[in-house]
Amino acid sequence: MSNEEQPVVLVVEDNPTGIASLVGILGAACELVVAKTLAEAERCLSPDMDLVLLDLYLPDGNGIEFLKRLKSDPLYQELPVICMSASDQSSDIEEAFREGAIDYVLKPFNKIILSAKVSTFVDFKRKTNLLAAQALRDTLTGIGNRRMFEQQLDLEWRRALRQELSLGLALVDMDHFKSINDQHGHAQGDVCLQLLATSMEKAFGRAGDLVARLGGDEFVAMLPGATLNSTVRAAKRLEEVLANEHEKCRRSGQDCPGFSVSVGCYAVVPHKGTNASELKEAADQYLYEAKREGGRSCVRPAI
């Protein structure tokens, strides 16, 4: 397989002979997580898995129902599922493919065919994941891009709504970025953008926080569970982190123009009838206020 890391395969199979056969065929190349019931499979399921081998007939239900639940969950829609059965009835095969199975293999297993199928689908999934991850990253700074931010904002907004949690947002804009490009050149402007991205990752560094570049010199930090006070405190830390990063550049002999940022913050506990755009608009108003007051690491609201 193309990736050196051992693939993780969820095997949903209750028959001891079938399990032993799969271990013999795939055990050396894959990490097999065996579930003998659908309930056990639900507990074992993880987004880190590369493939599911799913028997159609389990003690606690039909594998097709499990397949339907997988394909209706955005977290697992792209997880490849190979259905396994001794049945070669057209109705079983057609239903498996109709509900989203990527393949259907008959028992007893053919070692060469099964190994080739698993290898092919694992490689395909990993390449797809890599392309998807690259599509969500800003190529210059390595942090998330606007697309990643919008996707995560939607997820975190719905989670905060369900759990009645606060969601904080900080919009960050570099002061006088055009002047930096005009005076020092675009290459130095890029260095400044990279330094700001690194600083934001450190200032907004809690587990679950997300930083992204929206475009140009516009950045954002999303802080799940954060109140307005804690969002503003994190934004104020950014000035200190930036100063430290600039000092590191100078000590290492790198040429990085000094700059400051303006930050607008807001936080809200979502409720029915509201949407994430209101959070963005409120933070944007405070960013405008910070810029209007001259920038220079200005954070608004003033708390």
TrEMBL record:
Modified residues (4-aspartylphosphate): D55
Top-level taxon of the source organism: Bacteria
Annotated catalysed reactions: 2 GTP = 3',3'-c-di-GMP + 2 diphosphate
Keyword Nucleotide-binding found: no
Names of required cofactors: Mg(2+)
GO BP: any one term: phosphorelay signal transduction system
E.C. code: 2.7.7.65
Residues covered by the Response regulatory domain: 8-122
PROSITE patterns membership: GGDEF, RESPONSE_REGULATORY
Domain GGDEF: 165-303
UniProt entry tagged with the keyword Phosphoprotein: yes
Keywords: Phosphoprotein
Pfam families in the record: GGDEF, Response_reg
Molecular-function annotations in GO: diguanylate cyclase activity
An example Gene Ontology CC term for this record: plasma membrane
Name of the molecule in the record: diguanylate cyclase
Species the sequence originates in: Marinobacter salarius
Lineage: Bacteria, Pseudomonadati, Pseudomonadota, Gammaproteobacteria, Pseudomonadales
